[in-house]
Amino acid sequence: MNYKERLIKALKGEDVDKAPAVSVTQTAIVELMDIKNAEWPEAHSDPKLMAELAIAAHEFGNLEAVRYPYCLTVLAEALGCEVNMGTKNRQPSITDHPYKKGLDREDLPENLLESGRIPAVFEATNIIKEKVDESVPLIAGMEGPITLASDLCSVSKFMKWSIKKPEEFEKLLDFATEAAVKYANGLVENGADVICVADPVASPDLMNPKDFNERLKPRLTKFAEDVQSVTVLHVCGNVTPILDMMADCNFTALSIEEKVASVRDAKDVVGDRVSLVGNVSSPFSLLSGTPDKIKDDVTRALSEGIDVVAPGCGIAPNTPLENVKALVSGRDEYYQ
């Protein structure tokens, strides 16, 4: 069973010889930037550098997939958000929002997929496909529709409008969902095998679970149903209060952090509706722990039934390369 077969089958809940060891979230670390001479922030915009850095996590970190790009601002920027491109060890961030007074349009820009950095991501997809064996899966990451909607107006206004301007809130969500579907399908058409949606603003840390069920879940479900590939939904934080609802969104799999303390309990909640990916701690194990600590986390996750071994969230840029490799070697040792 090759890497792609194993990952797709595991995400779909089918039998595999062993759990894949990948990252469905951000993979670039400073050590890899130095090895490949492909640094942030240039690698966020230059398709060749983007591809080289993405491949490096597979080539030198032993991760069994190539995951790219490295932030949650590509689609937001293409829709008019201003972005600070960050530094070598800090990701890009949104600095200004185009619809602070409300959404003043109905339709998506006709040239959306030719805007901002989207063409660079598409080109990087094609470069990766040319440079890695076809047995290696490509995981494309992107901001989810809820987070995108909040970027378009600002998180604070998004949350205020959810109460004070419900029509504007719903309109933004629909607009963002349509944009997210279009971009995701563009990624698939260019060769991505898996789409991973990171949607931190959907977290119960920010939005009431009742709102998730009634207002956010329908948009996430539409995204999952309209995107023509295997899909993974990642929501930051302890998603235990919304886990059952997340499992009803029709994504192929859910990515969970270590804050979901028991994989076994999470499996009981989701049943056979979705597979689970994670939940090795990015900050407390991969960034600041030892290889032995990471292997212990991998063993715990596997023994509790995780379907795909992965970091619980994006890998921090200052994470040691040896710790990334320990994610895979810990999986290997579990099956010996």
Structure overview:
- With 336 residues, the protein is of the alpha/beta class.
- It has a single domain (3-334), classed as TIM Barrel.
- 46% of the residues lie in helices and 12% in strands.
- The protein is built from 14 helices and 9 strands.
- It has helices at residues 3-11, 30-36, 47-59, 74-78, 118-131, 145-153, 155-164, 166-190, 209-226, 243-246, 263-270, 282-287, 291-303, 321-334; strands at 66-68, 82-84, 93-96, 138-143, 194-198, 230-234, 253-256, 275-280, 308-311.
- The chain has a 7-stranded parallel sheet with strand order 1-4-5-6-7-8-9, with helices on both faces. The chain has a two-stranded antiparallel ribbon with strand order 2-3.
- Helix 2 (30-36) crosses helix 3 (47-59) and helix 6 (145-153) crosses helix 8.
- The chain is globular and about 60 Å long.
- The relative contact order is 0.14.
Determine and state the CATH class. Alpha Beta
CATH fold group = TIM Barrel
> How much strand?
5-15%
Q: Tell me the span between the first and last alpha carbons.
A: 17 Å
In DSSP terms, counting alpha (H) and pi (I) runs of 4 or more, how many helices? Answer: 14
Helix content: 40-55%
Biggest sheet details: 7 strands, parallel
Low-confidence stretches: none
Number of domains: 1
